């Protein structure tokens, strides 16, 4: 014995080459597992024990998870777990196995049956091998002591083993024969649809089933022994037909046909018959089986139905409508002649879908989808669809289809008609197009628009109205009183009476109003400044309401406020201003304009410290005159100010620069701010700051205004500083004069010598000792630009009179200064007594004064320029306002052109203004309007490339600005063409429509001119308003034309066309009412249309219309009316509800068609149909009776088959569970006996045996739930590639070496949403099936892929459209026929030999995949292999790697006071759970059902966790949890269930803080789950 023999793999390869799975299949085919005790096997076991002198002898069978004892002596148990089995190792080698001492064999080193002190020591066993070479188990003996067998004992053991195998083979044969006989007799007797007779070789009847009484009138015992000839007519007997049939059956094995037979009562029976020869196992004939199926009534009904169908179709063919019939599945069976005449289709075409060829391609999918939905709903339906006529044109038809039900409530057929509605449809489309165009025009207006009725309720509004007032939907406005919406109060908060509202007054009195400025209330309570006009709505001389348009003038008011502020600011800054006066000067006015709470000025030192000079507040915040570092406000603000940037912060909390400084800013009440830097010679000296205490979105205008204010402050401050410097200089001069500190000079005219003192030296840098002549003076120190002036002044002074004075300012070039020095010189001429003439004077340095004077002059010039610009801007704004008013009144393009030309010519002072429209070629323009000043008109066509290359600028939407056509590179080559037109400078502003150049507005001048940006911007504003005005005039004109076209079409229509309002009153009727029925337009309005209805139909017709109107459903009715001549005519009236684009109901629109002639024909047809219907009804009643009888018989057969299948299933389940319960109960009895006797040292073996049986029972219930699609799925994202890769080794071992496995896994595979464990089992099952289909070997390929199903593909797969993950198992095996493939997923269906397959494998896979929301399909071909595809739903989140958790072997204990409520109706389960809770320290509360649990939940007692069974009597566990959550929202719930119908998918069943355990469960698992749920946060 080789004790070093290795432990075999889970799927060992036997010496014969068969795998473990094939051996198990062979074992199952014998059907001997778990059978009751058999004396023959017991005798063999007893004899074996006696011969071998062994205390233990066993005949065992090795299954996949246990060793089961067919017979045993000395063990006392029926089975044991596989891991304890010795025989499981013994069958892996051929022949007798003898192990003298089991403890010496390392294969059993861990086996507790061997290694315990009193364990087994000796083993000898012979395998029980089938004729196919498979070992099913062993006949073995065991002993508690080591030993050996003699040669005689060995031979006897082998012989007894062969005898045991023969008995097993005999049991297999007997079981198969018994099953076959039972099934045959049950099938023979339960067949109620056919009469079955068995015949002997001589043609005599041996037996008959009960159905023979029904078909032939003979009782079964009456037929026994009779010759078969008694069933045939005398003519057939004379022809020898019975003998001929027997001969054919002998030759061919079977013969079948339809013939007449003779009943017992001599009536004839028409039946389908089959005569089959019966053969024994040797192929010898031993009798016949004769079957008859009665078709007498069916053949009679068929003949009657054919006759009736011919008459009915003749009636349908004369119908003026398309009429068709379909079967219960919707396939076309019949279409009348009108259809083929209209479409030209071939009536002999057998394709049931050929009618789709006449459907317009654009509507085919919609029609098919509607038809599929109708078939599913099983309800009448209608659809409008265009059909192609024989001439190739399409006309609209209204197709209506209705199901016809039989008495059982099932659809028997579909009946459909189609009416030609092409004329009505096209008229309706034209009307809807006109209304849609009108709505589009209103919604495209930039001005708000609405209308009201006389009571002040809104009837219409456009999108601009909703946007300006903050409404989200028209439903919030329509039907509401307008005054309550927009004028509930004045701006000051006082109430605003409705009678004072101008719009309301217009609706009441018809008076028009134009309000240039008013305030209306927005939805959020804010006030909106508007300019509006209200005009009355008159209809037929009666006032119906008012229409109002208004526009937002917020920007206009803000512009006026800014202009007024700047003008006021200019007046205030005319004088001087110190920095401490800034806040007082600006605060109130600038604060109101910007709507801020604080304004101030601060100077900034080099360290960034703010020293605030002044501050203004609105009183809601502190002045804040303290000193702060600029770094206290935000990050990087100082650097931005030093760069000259304005710091703009809309919200200090959101802005990243200030978010971290929020605490400081909140203390200063700063939530938004503007910081404008002030620089002096490039150095940051101060800033103007503006603070808001709430978030503030600073507009471009706000920033520009603040910058301009800061610039003006800077200029005025500089001017103030300069004035102060000048004042100080004059003060110093006066002081110098007073103390004689001015420079003094002396000019000796006679000697031409000039001298001066040290002060002039300080001014000029020339030594006072130097004596210069005038010439030297001029060329030495006098600035070159001033030499002539100084020379002339000196000469004039020298020649002047005595005591004459001279004053002169000039520059000198000092030697100690880089810049010239300004000197102010004053002198007096006098003559000394000796006749010497002198000029004596003083000199003063006035350099700073000159510089201040220059600066002050520049400031004054800048202020003058800004005032001029503001004045021009105000003029332009006034012109824009004037233009808006004028354009609103203009009604055509000529009037618009004149208004624009007049305003532009006046404001811009140009020579010409014009408007040009682009022609179709894109390069030629048509000047339609122009205005000129003393020049000729430009109207006409011009080719733009002849005038320059600027056309591309226009197409890009850019304004073309030409200051001089002769110098601009775009026009210089074409200057002569412009000069001919007397144009030297011009501006073209393009007008774009939908991004395309449509026209442009231009101005030109007769001289070169530099156009300013303000002029260009002003022209753009003018162009925008001109374009809007022109679009408005075109829209008005188009609207009038559309309404005129609609009226013309309606009046020309060959039907009565009408429309109603929301009150069911007629508001429109075409002229046909007057021409054919004598009603004028005014007479039809309101309820006037009812005048022509005859008295008998009036009440019903009005009620029909009102009912449809109230339900907002399509209206259809037929009524009798009087025409203009007083004759009665039939009208078909149809109407549809009208809705606007927002879904608001507007009323009905419809038409009425004269159907008098059609009605007469229809009445005649209906009479014929009624007669036909009566005949069909009688036939139908007979047919129903026969169908009912046949269905009753079929249902009885199905019920019999179902009960047989259920009997087999429940028998197997009962057998398995009895075996498992025997193991559990037996082990528990042995444990009890051992405990009573005190022998507790070896209880583990019995505990393990009981546990193994319980585990097998759990596995069995799991398989049953899988088959029934009722197992609880733990669905989660699954990586199929990873799953398949992890199972590859298992697949390889399973299929063996003769099958090659390949995997083709998609690289970017989506995650699937499924139960990973169930998916593993399904794949393994498919691999095993594929292996069995390749007995000679082959290739097995597993592939994965992504799959997206559209609606059509999903319908074929019976799935919802969407993304799926596909896994395919492909083999090259035997394949399946179509008949077998169709049944492959059916339960209990198998092609394997008896005992080798249950037929549940594929059914369980199919159930699992369908429960997961997927689908399974088979693609196969005999001899070419099989592909099984599983489609699983895609999960859109990535798969998360699960981190394995180390098991905690110690059950966690409860914390103090933790309480668990247990609700379980099974007392034993409840007791176990309560015991576990008590052992772990929990406070346990119990209830047997929900009714007992609710009072505990409603009490004040502490409950940390609710543990409840799902399947409680009365209120189930899930409903109890919902009730408990209402009382205790945070209560955690743990469900325990063996099977819950609604708990099949955990994620769908469980809510937050819920979990589920499946029975049976481990106590450890229960303890851990309870602890984890209570401790979870």
Automatic annotation (TrEMBL):
Residues 381-433, 1115-1167 form the PAC domain. GO terms for molecular function: phosphorelay sensor kinase activity. PROSITE patterns: HIS_KIN, PAC, PAS, RESPONSE_REGULATORY. InterPro entries: CheY-like_superfamily, GAF, GAF-like_dom_sf, HATPase_C_sf, HATPase_dom, His_kinase_dom, HisK_dim/P_dom, HisK_dim/P_sf. It is an enzyme of class 2 (transferase). Residues 1212-1436 form the Histidine kinase domain. The keyword Phosphoprotein applies. NCBIfam families: sensory_box. It catalyses: ATP + protein L-histidine = ADP + protein N-phospho-L-histidine. This is histidine kinase. Residues 180-226, 308-379, 434-488, 729-801, 1042-1112 form the PAS domain. Keywords: Kinase, Phosphoprotein, Transferase. Transmembrane segments: none annotated.
